[in-house]
Queue: 4 jobs
Job 1
Amino acid sequence: MRVSDFNPSSNPVRLTIAALLGSTMLATSATALAQDPAASNSDVIIVTAQKREENLQDVPIAITAIGTEKLEQLQVTDFDDYARYLPSVSYQTTGPGGSNVYFRGVASGENANHSASLPSVGMYLDEQPITTIQGNLDIHVYDIARVEALAGPQGTLYGASSEAGTIRIITNKPDTSGFYGAADVELNSVSHGGEGYIGEAFINAPLSDRAAVRIVGWYKKDAGYLDNIPASITFPTSGITFDNAPFVEKDYNDVETYGGRAALRIDLDDDWTITPTIMGQKQVSHGLFAQESGLEPLQVAQFNPERFNDRWYQAALTIEGKIGSWDLTYAGAYLNRRITGESDYVDYSYFYDALFGYGAYFYDNNGDLVNPNQYIQSVDRFEKISQELRFASPAEKRVRFVGGLFYQRQEHNIEQNYIIDNIADSITVAGTDSNIWLTKQLRVDRDYAAFGEITADVTDKLSATMGTRIYYYKNSLVGFFGYQNPGYSSNPIYACQGPVIVKGSPCTNLDKQTSDTDFIHKLNVTYKFTDDALVYGTVSRGFRPGGINRRGSLPPYQADFVDNYELGFKTSWWDNRVRLNAAIYQLDWTDVQLSFIGANGLTEIRNAGNARIRGGEFDFYVRAAEGLTFNLSGSYNDAKITEDFCDFANQAFDCTLPGPDGDPNSVLAPAGTRLPITAKFKGNAQARYQFEVSDSLDAFLQGTAVYEGRRTSDLRLKERDIIGDLPDYTTVDLSAGLNNDKWSAEIFVRNLFDSRGQVGKLVPCDEDTCGDPDGVTAMGPKIYTYLTQPRTIGIKLGTKF
């Protein structure tokens, strides 16, 4: 028996944010208008993808950059909002703070379990990595300079987990030029749901001619739109019936988010600057963010509390200066994240009872059967320390170098309490009140690296870049997982290997580590026909570290690699009024880390062979007339495995070879099977017209459309058939507004046609059980489908001062 690894994800703070919003509003009437330099309207986009400030059109990398002004125009407030407009990005989600992101089809359908693979995409907040397992930080987007999406391996400069791409959120920095700020409020209503609202504000204040502070605050309430309807369950073995009456609720899945950011900039002299920053956020989500199979649309029937409290803060320090003519940058950060959760797990209890009679194992101290209803109480604690020391030679020289040293250590303290009330002491995990299963583990991922890139201008038009990153990783997993029922499992308490190592566990039955040293490379050749047109070719490699399988019979999984072969061009005409950038590529993904729920519901990670992705992407922008702009971008990915994926893994990836005990092997997915999660085509289109109403008043009209093609849900064919595909969908947004130098007002509708776009699917335990492929249970298959937010209509008011 085994419980599945499924895990969906102060008042003083509120007062501080409210005070900031209120003081900013009051300041508007008394303060003269000052222009925020970060919000200037320009066709030139500056990025720092190569660790230098450069015009996006001069960087020989496939980059999508969404600047401050565009983020505001597109009504971007969180990850889901900006991911829609990144054509090379796909993702799956279990709700706020539970999204897993992929680039260019490098996705195998990972279930993001706490003990599984690290992400294949690196996430950065300014100079500091914030990549965490079990879902990226859902950072509220406000007063952000830009979001940069770097497609393809970025391993030499960004290292581990930038195997397929990197997303960077760059904040607006303190500015000594003057005092200014802004405040915005939004009210919205969600179809089939409730009402939401947002309040956000920032101020930039010089402290002297060499120091300034920038303070940002936000509060957001997302309305729910899924209903938890009345239902009851009868367990077959005991005949016990119970209902969900205490948890019936309309608009079940609301979210509350609030937080702030403060940054101080001090120019010590003309060459040296230090910028300490502190940022924190609390996000409380209620309910489930997926509709349930067998019910009406936008309905679920849940029987236990469901709530996640995701709190995090990051303290960062950036030091920039010069040693001679060389630039020096130090970037260090400490990230602390804590997610406490409550999850319904009654589906597992019902299906294992209905199919295997597991209800007979759950009894009280008198030997009487108890209600086997099961729920999870979890605490995930993350700590990440990262440090980078980087040197860069003068950018104007014909030979340029950037390189340095990097270190990070991420610790994940995992606690999952699977609880059945009133069970007997003899089957309760020692040290707990009523746990039928406990996971209490400490996972540590360490990464050390030295990196460098050198670029030489061979001629005035031709340049070449060579780069490498030498890395060492060491990852470990230690602690306890299991239950107290000797004789029925390979890992009950009696099989523990030693005394307590992880506080809160009854003993230790897992203590493993894996490590490796290697290097990755990058080669690039760029030819500039003119200042406005270049072509480039890149060969680059990215990697993702290996790790531990907590099932004792399985070995550690090894690192996997992506080799990228890319040709691209960037062109602009008419003083940057027209831009067309495009790239074609082939990605060879070797030793693919595939994670899935295996025997007894335990997550397994295997190096499942190789895959190949061929594709292309483009971005077209035109300012057709004064105030009239169009943007069209898209990507195509043909992503397939190139070897059979076998029931039992083997080095030759030959499914005719038997399993370790001589068991017959079988093909779970033949060569040529499409990789999951990523559509063959994803694209978006935007049109905006800004015009003058009077000498002091401007107006705009805007429309956007996002298309996501059909995606498969799993690499394995049988499981794919059970879960079903994710069909294609299109969302359309419209907005219109008025503004002058001091204020703005707009109305908007998001998802105009109320599209039910599917962005993820899952079953609460292994597919053969909770998917009920043979249709033998009264409940039928249990599949949860995560959807785009229904049509949302709102109004937004803002002021700048």
Job 2
Amino acid sequence: MPSGKVDRSKLPDPTRRRFSAPKGPIVEPRNEQEAQIREIWARAFGVTSAELSVEANFFDDLGGHSLLAATVVSALRESGIGAAPSIRNLYTHPTIRLITAALASSAFDSPIVPSITVKHADTDVARAGGIQLAVIYVFLLITTLPVSYVYTKNDGFVSVPVLFEMLAAILLTYLCVRWLLPVLSARPLAAGIKPGQYKLWGPTYLRLWTLDLLLAVGALPVVSGSPLMSTYLRILGANVGHRTTIATSSISLPTLVDIGAGASIGYGATIRPWRVESGTVVVGKVVIEPGAFVGANVVLEPGSTVGARAVLGDQSLLPYGHTVPQEARWAGSPAVPTEALDPAVETMMRADSVRARWKVRHVLATFVGLTALEVGAIALMIPGIALVWGALLAWGVLAGLVATLLTGPVFVISVCVFVAVNKHLVLRTAPTGMHPARSGLGIRKWMVDKLLEFSLLFTNSLYATLYTAPWLRLLGANIGRGAEVSTVSHIDPDMLTVGKDSFVADMASVGSARFANGRIMFQPTTIGERTFIGNAAVVPSGMDIGDNALIGVATVPPVNGVPAGTSWLGSPAIYLPNRQDSGDYNDELTYAPPREVVRERYVIEFFRATLPPTVLGVSFYLYLLVLSSLAFGRELAVPALVAPLVAMASSLAVIGFCAAVKRNTVGPYRPRVEPLWSKFVRRSEFATGLYESAAVPIGVGMLVGTPFLPMILRWFGSTIGKRVWFGTTYLTEFDLVHVGDDATIGTEASLQTHLFEDRVMKMSTITVGAGASIGTRSIILYDTIIGEQASLSPLSLLMKGEELPPKTSWRGIPAEGIRADTTPSPAARTTIHPDATATDVAEGVPA
């Protein structure tokens, strides 16, 4: 109903059994708080409170699951019982008596840290947007200038010699923008920026945003993991010691990054000395001391430090101002001390330090590899360009346009051949065991990593289709029949086994090699049959996941493995006794579809994989056509100055086309449940693939952190208020996203409005209140509400059905309240005076 309540008269009759309390003696409450909590449990289970014993186990006795746990915990928060309990509290205290005692203990004496959002005037946002638009124009001017020159020089005419000139111009543009522009701009843009807080949309923020834009198109992604990474970071302004292994490219503001000698940083780690929180920009130095190990997918907040030879485990958050002591072992989100971590990492860290540096032959091999990768990226476009250009010269403009319709399949095939052939030539099979990282094997491993990243970057829409499994088998993986694999990241294909009918969701890291203390470790990783690996989960190499198991969203499984039939969630992982029932669907809709349905999906997903590059090819062709007419009979100034505007118009046309496809194939998204093999899922995934592989790369991604991104997302159906800072493009069911005024959606945060559970697609709404703040790489699941001005820290998970009270601060996987006896977030401790001048803000306010 409009009030947000449920209209019971419209609900269908129940078809499942009613929850019932276990038989046995009923232990009555002994105080008022136990009685209040029993009443909340009774409402959640649909029974009378008199039927519940205060010693009945929420999961084992009553059959509760994660969604009911979120419902109960949210109700406890709303009622004011205890100081904002978390889902983890309920799993560790699963009876009314235990949770009551826990909420009454000294651990809950400290209140939740309040969250206060700094609001900004519309004029401030508009002014910043105008400057950002000018920056984008200048960037496009630099990017398009060589092509404009070629067309002007030839008076707009096309020929075979002009084709070669065009390819040379494209190569020159690519190399200059990728290698030269970030190097020349990084230090000047970062000059004078010191730790502290700055005004969002102010001058310092605009410099940081511009730097991020240039680093995103720069060479960090291809250099990361190579012997040249430390040198490249030093050129950008970072302080980096020798003998480091830095496998991540997610590094911003290098001048405030300090990485000691011999440090090891894993895949996907986020090192961001600045972030936006609650309407302010927080800046702080990130320090990784000599010999330290930082695991995969770690987030280091501004102002955090990892001590010498300390170990920070996978999927861990080191909050603002926190330090991991020397030689210590910390893990989890937020990170806390632990006895030991992944056995492979511990083995490498206990071994003697490898003092050897990269040899000259290794550096030369790296230059050769970089050249091959960079030239290869351009060469992949040549078959499609030659096809279109040949049709254009032979039969005219219309024939060239028709030929662009074939560029998508040609490009996808070209990328797959390039990646597969070179992968097998460079490193056909990774050798099991521990090896020196600074070796020929290390160089080959780096090149294979870059080839697989090429595949994800250039043919992203090929993943999460029926073509993914045979593609991964071609690369060396053992993928069982009926397995569904999405955009897996950082894998060693020849070390990976995925069992029959299993499901690996988006951006899961499964079995990637480990780097530590100058060594590299390869281990086989096995995922059993009918097992689910959730979005952004991290499964370390050497792990054995049993059959019918579940590894939840953003979860790191326990180090001793996952037994068959068990379910785990969190970082650190907690055992889930029960899973929510996904409904009784026939196997034909989930695991064993008829042949004609499979054939139909192959056809749909062929177009899903090839349409994005086709659309981009058509856009590029029309852009060149307009540029050709502009160059005819004119001096260079006219086409050069107009070309960026034509590029913007071309990008907006592609984005508008993607939005139109979404509206006409899916329509407005509504909360619903659909089995994997339903036609709706095919339509939805088709529209999502087009958005992710066409709209985002051609322009949406460049608008991150500008006032224009919310405008574009509204085209797709999202409801987004005024003055919202949007740092991510990770949305799928746009109409289910509701964001209030002045909210902050962090960098690479995921508004996950759907999940595939037991091969059933469940989708529902996400509501982010006015002034609320979501941190870097946090994941918000569906059916959640974030209250006004509530704050969720980076690398946190908000479970489906959860609700965060207004003006409170949270962090963790799953989320827990940030209490006053812990280090508060900077936005909670420091504010910027609303009357501060631009000069005052540019100087920063000490945190």
Job 3
Amino acid sequence: MRSTTLSLRTLAVLGAGFTLLPQAALAQDEVDEDTLEQQDEQPQSDRAIDAYNTIVVTGTKTRNAENVQDVPLAVTAFNSDSLDALKVRDVQSLTYAAPNVSLDQIGTSRGTANFSIRGLGINSSIPSIDPTVGVFVDGVYLGFNGGVVFDVFDLDSVEILRGPQGVLFGRNVTGGAVLLNTGNPTTDFTGKFRASVDGPWFDDRGGSNYTVSGVVSGPIVPDTLLFKLGGYYNKDEGYFTNLFDNSNHGKAETKILRGALEGRFGDFMIRGKLDYFTSEGDGPSGQNRGLFRRDTFDMSIDERGNYDNEIWTGSVHAELDIGPGTLTNIFGYRTYSATTLGDIDSLPIFGFHSSTKTDQEQISNELRYAMSGDGFDLTFGGFFFDQSIAYDEVRDLPPLTAFTFYGGGEQDHQVLGAFVNGQIYLSDALSVIAGIRWSREEKDAGVTYVRPRPECSVVDGTCPTSGINPFTGENNGFTDDNSWSNWSPKLGLQYEFGRGQIYAHWTRGYRSGGYNFRVTDVPTFENVVVPLNGGEFSFDEEKVDNYELGGKFQTDDGAFTLNAAVYYTDISDMQREVNTSGPGAGVVQNILNTADTSILGFEAESRMRVSDSLLFTANLGLIDAEYDSVKFDISGDGVIDDADLALALPRVPEITWGVGMIHELYLGSGSITTRVNYQFRDEFAYTDNNFGYIQDAQNLDANITWETPMEGLSFSLYGKNLLDQVQAGGDTQLPFGGPLSNGVNRPFDFFPALGTLSPLSKGRQVGVEAQFEF
């Protein structure tokens, strides 16, 4: 285990970082008319690179979108063109696109997010856990992590906001926020159609992956009533080879239908969107790292498993220009239904199989008013959120017991919030930033312990939460309710000069308390965890204070930009899902407030335009994280001591960095664009006891696109993870599996004792794509 102090290698990369030029793509929603006229006069090869000079974001919720260089906030953004260029098919594709950001999925439940920003994240698919990274689709908050890492198409922009965003985006965004904005209807009749195929064509594994999509948009009544319709289909033949029967594994089929209507009536605009998503396929492609080397894609499972997701998402966005500002209301609705079956032991024998069922329904509404006056900007509003979740978990562990485990939980969750955020300009250069949010959350839960018992279903209302389990003599479960309320403030300064700025701010955020739907070790939970929680069945909220100093600079011609920030994050009552192997239940996951923690970090992004046809980018992220105090035996040695304090925080890579290049060759009629991006992510602990870890990875993506002489028609050749690096969505220790490593299990062992569940992510993929726009 490395020291918590920054290594010499870290300092060397930090020094080199200022010569690098980063992955900062754009979300270009608004460009002034003069800029558009200048672009129209330039050849096609210039225009694509010129677009990187204007990066526009909406995450500040001011009256108008703002240039990212003017925003006193650490943010990386992408527009539709850059997302197309990166061949983004799901949110996880952006995990190697920004410093100190990991947008992985959990692996055990397809589509379930495992996001982490600046070292704040989760490592479990338990649906009752509130995320540290909030995901918002068209302004609608997604209440839990299920169905977040979905296939995406027709995106206008993606914005990744780093650091607590509690004032404008509410609780449970202590790590940051990811904003996904789907395409809006257009005033002109337009269309985009795309078809691609990729796969491990140069490697002896798996099959191909096919995708087709199409979108049409335009006016029904010119300038008054607009529409948009889209469809998406993906068929994945399975990337991996299951050595158990030499079949392809990882098969999936996904369908998306999307529609939108927009009405414009003078100063009033209303836009409705409806999205239907369905996906089904194989369960996790699990590798047992007590049996196979963690630097291979070898896997052998006797149960291929399955998953089946169905999601409906709707939103109504209304805006009215009134007085000096704009009144905005965003209503959201979502239903989510999913089943899973996975081979948890990841072995070619029946050791540990588990199935789940999850139902979720949510509604939300945000009403806000944003105004600008002489020397100030002000946004204020209110927020309401209501969510219900029901979850079943079934476990079969024939080596441990002939009885099947049943259990899970259900929860009603309500949120009320009110917020105000503003910026007062004391002079042309100096301004004060201030904001505050009041939030109140209530949770009412019923939990049935996941233990051997007669067959039952929480989702269907047949699992008991009281009385005695006839199979084990333990309590069946509990019902309980709790609430949390507090104030989340922000205070800062911004100083602007020429083409640059320096900002500093303090922000406080909260992650609400809650309940564990996956209690499998009843004695530990009732006799240890509940007392540690102050006698409460619920774990308490987590408080995060973030102090940040940043600067954004660019040359007068916009050819070079550098955005950098240093931050210190203090976390009190840190919530953790402590994963340990359990001889009586397979895997035990206790959720509790384990520690107080501090994180010191640095990140930078830069861009340099060398010529009209050549652009370089780069990014760098450094994190130094350590425990200040520990309240629970996270090392698992039976005592709380210096061994616990010395452990690495889970999900915290010490270094992330990357470089990229874009080159355009103008052919007189058409052009050829070449894009290359390399990203490195350091290894990190996956479990609190550090027995599970994710090795470092070097990710190389590249593509060449030919814009043909036929307007709107292009062809691309692309490659992802060209270095064929092995990565996994988790690394959870199991109570049985492969051989011991020297008879003992040490942190960061290459071969962990007794094996792991490590769902694999795809390796090298090469593909071709055709696209037509009009």
Job 4
Amino acid sequence: MAKVLIFNILLALILSGVESCRVPISLQMPVSQTIQAGEHITTVVVDNCDAKSIRFTSHDSSFTIYSNGTIEASENVAVPLKGRTFFLSVENNFDLERQLEVHLYRSKMFPKKGAVQGFLRRSKRRWSPPPFNILENVKGPYPIDIEKIVSDSASTQKVYYTISGPGVDRTPVGVFSLDKYTGLLKVNQAVDREQYPKFVITTNVFNDQTGVMTDAPLDIEILVDDVNDNAPTFKDPLQFTLPEQSKAGSIVGMVNATDRDQEGTLHVKVRYSLLTGLNMFSINPVTGVITTVAGNLDREVSDKHLVTVQIKDMDGAVNGLSNTGTATITLTDINDNPPTFTKKSYAASVKENESEKLILRIPVEDKDLKDTPNWISKFVIKKGNENGNFRVDTDPKTNDGLLYVTKPLDFEKSPNVNLEIMARNVADLQGTSAQWQSVPVNVAVINIDEGPEFTAPTVRYTVKENTPNGTQIGTYKAVDPETKSSEGIKYYKLSDPASWININRDNGELTVANTIDRESQFVQNGLYNLTVKAVDASSKSGTGTVIIVVEDVNDNVPKFLPGERLLCEKEGELGSVVVVAEDNDQSPFSSPFSFSLPADNDGKWSVTKYNDTAVTLKHLKELPTGIYNVPVVVKDLQGTGETQTATVRICQCKNGRCLAKESNVSLGPLGILALLLPLALLLLLGLLLAFFCTTKRGDRGSKIEESKGHLITSNTEAPGEEVDSIKLTYPTIMQEVAVKGSVNNVNTLGAGIKGTSTIGGNSTHNMGYNTVMTSNDFYTDQYHDQFGLQYTGQATGSGLNYDGRYTAQDASLLHTWQTNGRYLQQKLPYLGMEDNGRFADDIIHSYGYEGAGSAAGSVGCCSDFGDNDNLDFLNTLGPKFKNLGEVVRKT
């Protein structure tokens, strides 16, 4: 005992140093052999500690400790003979941390010798009362005493009590009150359990003199006991549906009720009952399930039933509270009524050869719900329609049956047709023993005079294309349906789009009239149709169709698709294009094609098969821009073919488009006209100048003739009559033309010159003074004049290569003409060539500049007037031409 006392003293000293918070270090509690889950074990009490800062933790999952120190079993625990020990942790916010040992032992065992009890010195305490109970909605008078709260410290000192929490100082405020010194707890007003089923209030006890709390705060639980003050109510709407003709005992639905009183008591135990409709329905008094009593509920008699349902608590006791409601039970339709005919039989008539005609309306009746699958009828021809001559539709408005004849009837084969028509619904029958009904219908066929009929409405013959004309392909005959004979029937074509077939009018024999082409637009999917008409002696007619299956033959060769292929030029790369071929024949007379280059190809291109109908053309070396026609041998699968030409344009591209082509396309007819208009005006101006010059000097020719090629000396300082009478001869004109570098309007120069010319042909020019020019091929010229100059020249191709004989008084004329001839020889070929739409853009052009410094002027005698600076070339001519030039300049 001394050791225990010393230990307790030391422990008290230690605990007093931790903010005066005293925590036991071990507990021993007697328990039964088996502890039930939820069973209260004990409550750990700490002294002088802030209850809000204390935290308890259990290290054994079989036990739970709450924030107020209460220990409960979280599961069933078996306690062995030697007992069971587990540990708790106790912490606060001021670095307090303790391990508390709890040892449980069976109640017949004694505590271990020397075990320390800590600060729990009593197992039964007055400061932890059980929950208090009050009754809800008590009428009073108030206040009503509940119970006294007594603290253990009240036995040694004078104390007072305070309470707080819901029902005191929190909503609902003022329900409870406490006598400060006696600890008597009172209730001050009625409480509704359905709103406040429980209150937990906190009680504190203080020393009356010092005001120090003598015990830890205590939570007191006040339970509100229930009274049966709420009648049960219906939880869901009382609306139910049930198929008609349901069997007895079929479930209609369940009535769900609820009660606000306390669960698990008689106050909420509801009993269900029916007050009406007991002859058709019943209800389970416990579950509230409504079922049928009989199986004869017929929607066609009554589609709704109203039933009164009562719900009563206290398990239906007399003193129980109750409520009633009306349940609506709607019967849904089933197909328990088959359609019925209004007559026992029907009759109809129809002319033979009529079709798609309504011949009879068959009314029916049905009691089921209208416009539903149970009411909508559909009709079936059970007998008599083996050839498919009839059909029966349903009128969507009246539900009647509509009998149509769909295929023409033949009076000679069957003058009467007996049908059996059954009426049924879209939905199958159910809930009834009735069967679908049928009715007989007699259809009388009316005889009419018919035209001839072909042996078959359609015949088919197979003919190869290109079959020789006159070849017989078959016979298509008709017979009279009454006599079954073909006598007197004539045959005609109603339709033969391509006029390929002839038909013999007397016997229907079909022969080829014109070449049959499978690739013709009149052949669709290899078939060609013609319509034939047969006419008997009474002008009655019938028609039939002949289908000709045109077989293909290899009469087409594969060809390239038209148009040129664009190949964009890329520096340092060899380009390629894909060329597609097509063959109008069918397999096996068409693709796959074979492609190859001719044996004499130029070696600039190669071919590679791209697919069955296309080839890739690739140039093997760099080629200049331009258009190339590449020959390629293309053959079909049978080896039939020929050389095709693929046109490839190589050009510079921008955004995949040829620049040169765009330039050419942009120059339309108006652009060309705009370019030619200035040339036409220039030509007209030259003609006017030439006409002006020649007419002005028309009276001077005689003096030139008399001088016989010699200049006449004149002492006149100014041009007189003799000078004015000098006529400019053809050599002089030709000298001017040659020197000035222009050959335009030669035929208009000089007086009296007459000429005709044809490019590429023959032309003869009469110059007036026995001067003749003849042009052959490009041109061949001979000149004779009275001056003694004779010249013959040959021009071949587009150049001017001259071999000539000449005699002249002055050789300088010939030298000048040859010089200008060579210049024209270099220039004319370029003017006759076109390369990618450009006219020799990169050659040097010579232009006649009429300003100062120009060595040559425009063609025309009047263009030199007033210009003294452009006659320097006369210094290189002979003396005779020099004098002539001065004369011309002064005129």
